[in-house]
Amino acid sequence: HPCHACPDREDHARWAERWFKLDRDSATLKRRVEQRTNTVARQFDRVCEVLTALDYLEGDAITPRGTHLMRLYSDMDLVAAESLRRGLWDELSPSGLAAALSTLVFEARRPDDASAPRVPGGNVKDVIAEMVRLWAELDELERSHKLDFLRQPDLGFAWIAYRWAEGDDLDEVLGDSELAAGDFVR
Predict the structure, then answer these.
(1) Which of 2, 57, 114, 137 is the most buried (most CB within 10 A)?
(2) Do the bridges between strand 57-58 and strand 61-62 make them parallel or antiparallel, or are there none, so unpaired?
(3) For the segment 154-171, what is each residue's pLDDT rounded down to a tens digit?
């Protein structure tokens, strides 16, 4: 081959090897950037799939059910919206509703250290149990779409919220619990 007679053949071969290596490295980096850049878009698409499955979206349009969800601002907004839609809270007293809603907003700092939470009885207990089942359904739906946004409802404040809403003195309610002042304020 005529290249064999070239006096700079070894230099040219090294430069060619270097070019092929840099080209391969460049392609690898481009793939990494593409994967990271599209992560948010893929996650957004997955969220839209979940919302479509729950009839909050239809294509790119918000359904009437979706207009209710877009007014909820919480990390547990899907559980709240589905609880409202299913009428889980319809028969609760104001203090029972406070207990049920506390499971969506309260989050213990160290759930491993906490003792088993005390929950009001009667229909409040049934509704909270149904909310936990609802959370499990929604969590399974999210996981089937490779998402993990929902945390489990935390029952640690339900009894305190119930008693306080029933008119018990806040100092007495908190004194009877293991709840730290910072957890109450939070």
Answers:
(1) 57
(2) antiparallel
(3) 998 899 999 999 998 888
